[in-house]
Amino acid sequence: MASVTTDSVLDRFRRVGALLEGHFRLTSGLHSPGYLQCALVLQHPTEAEACGAGIADRVRDLSPQVVLSPVLGGIVIGQEVGRALGVRAIFAERQDGRLMLRRGFSLEPGERVLVVEDVVTTGMSTRETIEVAKAAGATVVGAAAIIDRSGGQQNLDVPFHALATVSMPTYHAESCPLCAAGQPAVKPGSRV
Ligand SMILES: [Zn+2]
After folding, report:
1. pLDDT in tens, 48-69
2. How far is the CA of 185 from the centre of ligand 1 (A)?
């Protein structure tokens, strides 16, 4: 499959309404000039497959033996990266607030793990997923995501690859520069 460039990834997102630019009131109540919803891209299996292949191209040199993703956002893209690399894909999920391997999933000591997510915002869930792999005795060779929206602040201690980087600050309504400019905020998904 053809390699996926940053521009083509963002085009895919825009085409399906997964990346909106304007002035948005997010579910959290914060305002932002951008809205990102990876699930709207990944609902299309051919798009998910292309993103998985694009990530696989960037991480193949790390020689991962298994892909590990956190639920829920990481499952679909983790599966596609695993497919493209020809390795298995497993996921970690929460029990009593702690991320862990369940369902009989396990990692061998020294097994080479790639952590995959759909979007990295603060890097917190990626770091938590890395800890799950380390606790199992595995070796984390890298982390990857479709979109890095951390502004380079992900602070991971393993090689990190993203198909695209977007800058998407969030503001409290009272200090939102877009509100100050008199631009009305809309809920993402509502037709304008
Ligand atoms: Zn605003």
Report:
1. 999 999 999 999 999 999 999 9
2. 6
